């Protein structure tokens, strides 16, 4: 009997424990008890609201406490959150005056102008160098045949204003002869008064070629126009100064003269001498002209002025020299 009583008590306890779980499962399966189903939601909602309200109050309390500890009043709070404006002096120091920018602009412009000048000068030097190189590369070499020289032939006439009074000009002033009697030339500052010399009327630049047919002893020359016209002095004699270059053509020999220095020249004798000038290249060449052309002497120098063809005679009456009309 006691054992049966204990079993009944245990069944009662199990029913009390299991009954809520069974009722809960029945509530979930049976939609006919809305009041029982909504009660947990209302409980949850009220608990959640109380939790949120409590959290807000707690946060507010913490913020207020923090502000009260760090900022005693609202004025200090505002002054703490808003930065204090800069003073007028600080603002003015941060604002560059207009004159400052004008000075900067002027300095930049000056540097720009100097740079442009430097570049312009350098470019000019480069252009001149390129031009000189181009000239040297593009100019054809000195001709080798008479036909090649004739491409550069020029017509030369003599200037009566430079002729000594004992030189007779003829054939349209292309020929000069040494004569015994003086000629009635008008006085002129360019006239040679000591040496029996004469200069051409035409100036010679670029590439030129001409031929002189001579009889007797004649000096064939080129000279600057500002050569002296004095009496018997080296300053005015062709080949005896630094303003003229001359080939002395005598009966049996040739001699080249420059700055009063003579250089013996060998080569076939002929009555005709060809002269080739490349003024820009500084080349002056003398040729003996027969059936062929033979180089007698070549000069490589720098000509600083236009040149003029010249003739110089000795005291031999009847000696003549004339420029051949090649065209």
TrEMBL record:
Span list, region Disordered: 18-47, 67-94
**What SUPFAM superfamilies does UniProt report for this protein, alphabetically?**
Concanavalin A-like lectins/glucanases
Does the record bear Zinc-finger in its keywords?
A: yes
- Give an example GO molecular function: zinc ion binding
Bias category Polar residues: which stretches? 67-79
Q: Which GO terms describe its cellular component?
A: cytoplasm
Q: Which CDD domains match?
A: SPRY_PRY_SNTX
Specify the domain of life of the species encoding this protein: Eukaryota
The residues covered by the B30.2/SPRY domain are 136-327
Pfam families from the UniProt entry: PRY, SPRY
What keywords does the record list, in alphabetical order? Metal-binding, Zinc, Zinc-finger
What name does the UniProt record give this protein? Tripartite motif-containing protein 16-like
What is the scientific name of the source organism? Pundamilia nyererei
